[in-house]
């Protein structure tokens, strides 16, 4: 794994350049952060890469980024190399609206049936597999597919989708394709009573060791951005509705009632419960992984 071995050198180079390399999920779910970073001017202090979650996850693990959102499955696999930023995440404590299982047949009929999984997700696809095997008692034939709904549904009666593609599928395309929509965060909540965390924000451990104050600054910038977004939510949703496919009320519902951007004790309990249920040698991480949180008071 050359990329991982080179990571400290890459991190040192980035810090020399003065701006940390930060990964940002290019979905509507992370618009709150982007809005705030742009409004406060913090955006100019970051070397920001906007990309889909699976690519950002790989880039953080490879040391091509210093701080990034990372899909929880990838975080758990590389928890030893990463430090989690507290109080911020992408999750839900009930229906999330954008991490969905779509199916043309009842879920208990999915045994042995092809099920298309979006290539953009590492966590939601694992959550779907967990719920289907443990809660519903079926084992479909999972295959990866780019997040294009016609292609996914041409090859299978069911699909797992996330992000904007999932919002589009449930809000705009369900009638055309004739599937039922199952919200995976809602199913998790009913099953466990806990919130679900899909992505955390993490910094590479050696980057924190060398640039703790900078990481704390970026973290504070994220929290301030989210707060500013919430103050200005009506304006943001009206502006975003001009170019997004969804109206302002739908966006506001997504940000205020569906997504949960916190990472506190309850969310960490949800994350640990997920690790307990899916961890083991096949997953590539233990059922009880150590979660290192950034010390926001002193050096990280
Ligand atoms: C809520 C969401 O959370 C996401 C789900 C992810 C995954 O399944 O791997 C990764 C990052 C997040 O974007 C979403 O994409 O809609």
Automatic annotation (TrEMBL):
Does the keyword field hold Lyase?
Answer: yes
Under catalytic activity, the entry for this protein gives: chorismate = 3-[(1-carboxyvinyl)-oxy]benzoate + H2O
Give the pathway.
Answer: Quinol/quinone metabolism; menaquinone biosynthesis
> What EC number(s) does this enzyme carry?
4.2.1.151
Which UniProt key words apply to this protein?
A: Lyase, Menaquinone biosynthesis
Q: Which InterPro entries match?
A: Menaquinone_biosynth (IPR003773), MqnA (IPR030868)
Give the function comment from the record: Catalyzes the dehydration of chorismate into 3-[(1-carboxyvinyl)oxy]benzoate, a step in the biosynthesis of menaquinone (MK, vitamin K2).
Similarity annotation: Belongs to the MqnA/MqnD family. MqnA subfamily.
The record's listing under PANTHER family reads: CHORISMATE DEHYDRATASE
Q: What protein name does the entry list?
A: Chorismate dehydratase
Primary gene name: mqnA
């Amino acid at each position: 794994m050359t990329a991982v071995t080179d990571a400290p050198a890459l991190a040192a180079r980035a810090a020399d350049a003065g701006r940390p390399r930060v990964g940002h999920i290019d979905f509507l779910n992370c618009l709150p952060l982007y809005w705030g970073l742009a409004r406060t001017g913090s955006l100019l202090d970051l070397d920001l890469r906007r990309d889909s979650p699976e690519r950002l996850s790989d880039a953080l693990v490879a040391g091509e980024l210093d701080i990034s959102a990372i899909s929880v499955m990838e975080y758990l696999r590389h928890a030893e190399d990463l430090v989690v930023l507290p109080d911020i995440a992408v999750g839900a404590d009930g229906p999330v609206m954008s991490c969905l299982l779509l199916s043309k047949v009842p879920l208990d009929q999915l045994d042995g049936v092809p099920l298309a999984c979006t290539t953009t997700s590492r966590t939601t696809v694992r959550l779907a597999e967990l719920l289907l095997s443990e809660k519903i008692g079926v084992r479909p034939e999972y295959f990866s597919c780019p997040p294009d709904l016609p292609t996914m549904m041409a090859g299978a009666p069911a699909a797992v989708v996330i992000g904007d593609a999932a919002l589009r599928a449930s809000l705009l395309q369900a009638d055309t394709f004739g599937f039922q929509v199952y919200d995976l965060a809602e199913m998790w909540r009913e099953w466990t009573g806990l919130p679900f965390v899909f992505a955390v924000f993490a910094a590479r451990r050696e980057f924190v060791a060398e640039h703790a104050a900078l990481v704390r600054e970026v973290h504070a910038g994220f929290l301030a951005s989210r707060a500013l977004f919430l103050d200005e939510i009506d304006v943001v949703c009206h502006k975003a509705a001009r170019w997004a496919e969804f109206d302002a009320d739908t966006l506001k519902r997504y940000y205020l009632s569906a997504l949960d951007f916190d990472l506190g004790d309850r969310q960490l309990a949800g994350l640990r419960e997920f690790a307990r249920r899916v961890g083991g040698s096949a997953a590539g991480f233990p059922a009880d992984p150590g979660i290192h949180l950034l010390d926001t008071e002193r050096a990280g």
